[in-house]
Structure formats: C-alpha cells, structure tokens
Amino acid sequence: MKVWMVMLLGGLVTWGTRFSFIYLFGKFNIPEKMRKALHYVPPAVLSAIILPELFLHNGALDLSFGNFRLLAGLVAVLVAWWSKNTLFTLISGMTTLLVLQFFF
Fold it and tell me: Which of 32, 62, 74, 93 could form a disulfide bond with 57, CB atoms 3.0-4.6 angstroms apart?
C-alpha cells in the first residue's frame, strides 16, 4: 500500500510542477532573452546525463578502446551527423554497444 501511495504522490508532484510551468508560461509575458536561453536547457541537461556515462568508468576517466560506451557513443555521433535521424542514431548506438559487449 505504501508503494502505491508513494507512486501516486510522486506522479502528482511531477504532474503539478510540469503543469504549473505550462500554465504559467502562457499567463506571463516571458522576455525574449529568457525564451532564447530556455532553448539551451535540454542540450545542457542531456549532456550532463550522457557525458559522464561515456567518459567515466569506475569513477575514473577512461579514453581507451576498452571503453565500449565511448566507442558506441562515437558511432552514434557519426551516425547522427551523417543521417540526421534520431531513431537511426539511437538504434545504431545501442546495437554497437550490444555487439561490443557480446563479442569482447
């Protein structure tokens, strides 16, 4: 019962914070500089999540060929640059990581 209560309350809090930003964003006049600055938030957050996973292994910087996540990330970057297709990029990066982990 406690797990369901935590999940329900967590969902309500998450929904409430997101809804409040959507609701308030339409009610107030946001300065143009702020709107432009908000465009940089998703790439910054995504970089903060992904880059440590690619470059750090056991808390240390790992730039070796044994770092399969970094190699798969490089493949994904090349595919993204070449194809400009998000789905193809994700599939190629995940497939590369799975193949490297399976065979090595």
Answer: 62
**How do 56-57 and 60-61 pair as beta strands?**
antiparallel
All residues at 6 or more sequence positions from 100 whose CB lies less than 8 Å from its CB, including other chains? 68, 71, 72
Residues 27-60: pLDDT tens digits?
Answer: 778 788 988 998 899 999 999 999 999 999 888 9
**Do the Cβ atoms of 55 and 73 come closer than 8 Å?**
no
Select from 78, 63, 71, 60 the least CA-distant residue to 98. Answer: 71
Residue 62 one-letter amino acid: D
Task: Round to the nearest angstrom and report the end-to-end CA distance of the chain.
Answer: 44
pLDDT score of 22 = 79
Q: What is the DSSP string of 75-96?
A: HHHHHHHHH--HHHHHHHHHHH
